[in-house]
């Protein structure tokens, strides 16, 4: 008996220029798109900081955070993912939206972070696949290799409570929530510490 083809999943842009637009994305192992209600909470937390921000979306996956940030007025978003399908799909969405403020790289996020950026970022989204020990090495590389502006915000999703993880000492927990088994946290980098 033939297996039915997997249907592409859908994401919805919640607010901003492209509010209510829907896009398909391909399901991949370990892909956990940030749910609508969590994205809404996150972008409410960031409402005074998103417009005009330079954003970095490591482990972009469905592209939900990239598209939401651009819709809400981010000046630029650099998205990164290792999957060719993810990158092709997200580039297609940006083309459909005629958005030139987004760039998508097919690259390993940790390898990307070993270099230095052309300019530091105001906001970083970190939602790596769980159980692969990617979060803390990414946080450390962001901090040590010049990827962050002095007061940058860093959004993380983790399977472990934030207080149990060794985040950089100069990051202060701004907000956190838990939904199911996932911790959603927003950190702010403290300059000069």
TrEMBL record:
GO molecular function terms noted in the UniProt entry: 16S rRNA (guanine(966)-N(2))-methyltransferase activity; nucleic acid binding
EC numbers, comma separated: 2.1.1.171
CDD domains linked to this entry: AdoMet_MTases
Keyword tags: Methyltransferase, rRNA processing, S-adenosyl-L-methionine, Transferase
Reactions catalysed according to its record: guanosine(966) in 16S rRNA + S-adenosyl-L-methionine = N(2)-methylguanosine(966) in 16S rRNA + S-adenosyl-L-homocysteine + H(+)
Family to which the UniProt record says this protein belongs: Belongs to the methyltransferase superfamily. RsmD family.
PANTHER family tied to this protein: METHYLTRANSFERASE
Function: Specifically methylates the guanine in position 966 of 16S rRNA in the assembled 30S particle.
Protein name, UniProt field: Ribosomal RNA small subunit methyltransferase D
Protein species of origin: Pseudomonas saudimassiliensis
Lineage per the UniProt record: Bacteria, Pseudomonadati, Pseudomonadota, Gammaproteobacteria, Pseudomonadales
């Amino acid at each position: 008996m033939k297996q039915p083809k997997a249907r592409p999943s859908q994401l919805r842009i919640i607010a901003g220029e492209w509010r209510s637009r829907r896009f398909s994305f391909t399901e991949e192992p370990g892909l956990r798109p940030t749910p609508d209600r969590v994205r809404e909470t996150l972008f409410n937390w960031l409402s005074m900081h998103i417009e005009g921000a330079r954003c970095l979306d490591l482990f972009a996956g469905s592209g939900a955070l990239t598209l939401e940030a651009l819709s809400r007025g981010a000046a630029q978003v650099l998205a990164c993912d290792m999957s060719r399908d993810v990158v092709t799909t997200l580039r297609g969405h940006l083309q459909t939206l005629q958005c030139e403020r987004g760039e998508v790289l097919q690259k390993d996020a940790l390898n990307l972070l070993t270099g230095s950026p052309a300019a530091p970022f105001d906001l970083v989204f970190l939602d790596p696949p769980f159980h692969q020990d990617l979060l803390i090495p990414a946080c450390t590389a962001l901090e040590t290799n010049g990827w962050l502006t002095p007061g940058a915000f860093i959004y993380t999703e983790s399977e472990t409570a934030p207080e149990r993880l060794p985040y950089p000492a100069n990051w202060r927990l701004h907000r956190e929530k838990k939904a199911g088994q996932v911790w959603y946290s927003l950190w702010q980098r403290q300059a000069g510490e």
